[in-house]
Amino acid sequence: MSFFDALMTNSLLLSALLAGLAASIVSGIIGSYVVVKRIVFISGSISHSVLSGIGFCLWLQRSQGITWASPLMGALVAAVLSALIIGWIHLHYRQREDSVIAAIWAIGMAVGILFISQTPGFNVELTNFLIGNILWVSNTDLYILFGLDLVVLVAVLFFHTRFLVICFDEEQAQLQGLPVNFLYILLLILTAISIVLLIEVVGVILVLTMLTVPASIANLLTSRLSHMMSIAVLLSILFCLVGTGAAFHLDWPAGASIALVAGVTYMIALFLFPLTSRPLKLKVKSPALT
């Protein structure tokens, strides 16, 4: 049976591709902001801090019998809290920012491991969150994923022009009277939501690949951020489709296959377009910001 034949008959495979589509949209859009703003390290800290929320909710489910404590919701809460803490640190302690962010990265993972160590049973669910298992996505997860997608898209629709300015020149944004601190923290929160979406597809370990690689490849092809976002979304969808198809035929883990396809494509793109990557240009009129 071919991959597309299986797609028509296997509801799990169809759900997996729908999850990949939901993750690809935010991967291309928010990933472009992350690459341009150069907050990949911050995104890495947020992505690993979610382990604390996942571990805590698994502990509540298995040890305390609190069945409504979903690991996905725990990941979302932990990601947003980490984004708020990191944003506050960036705004008030820039001289020690890297060290404190690294500490938050370590604390988040340590707390998660401690709760997991106290959780009875074999944690298959935890393994899926760590290395990704797109075939494990349920209908409830799909509703949550597309709901989070909608939140991100609405926020970007309203704040895109302002995000552009703070990504390129925060000082200019302050001179124009924009609430730079609020916009920066909002961007981190949207990044946190995107990370949770991507964790469903490729897992905690590989989430940075799908957040940054499509946008980085798109940056090799264009110097306009709007074009970069569109290309990155299409690339993310392509990576999910090809990676899932490869996993189906080769019996490989889907998340790792998707990340591998993305990484190899990036290396090929660097070889083919070594001189075309250049700083993106801000093309926006000042009156639109006020």
TrEMBL record:
InterPro entries per UniProt = ABC_BtuC-like, ABC_TroCD
Q: Which GO terms describe its cellular component?
A: ATP-binding cassette (ABC) transporter complex
Q: Which CDD domains match?
A: TM_ABC_iron-siderophores_like
Mode of membrane association: Multi-pass membrane protein
Q: Where are the transmembrane segments?
A: 38-60, 72-93, 99-122, 142-163, 183-213, 225-248, 254-275
Q: Does the keyword Chloroplast apply?
A: no
**In Gene Ontology terms, what is a biological process of this protein?**
transmembrane transport
Key words of the record: Cell membrane, Membrane, Transmembrane, Transmembrane helix, Transport
Taxonomically, the superkingdom here is: Bacteria
Q: Does the keyword Hydrolase apply?
A: no
Q: Where in the cell is it found?
A: Cell inner membrane; Cell membrane
- A Pfam family per the record: ABC-3
Q: Which family does it belong to?
A: Belongs to the ABC-3 integral membrane protein family.
- The protein's name in its UniProt record: Putative metal transport system membrane protein
Taxonomy, top ranks, is: Bacteria, Pseudomonadati, Chlamydiota, Chlamydiia, Parachlamydiales
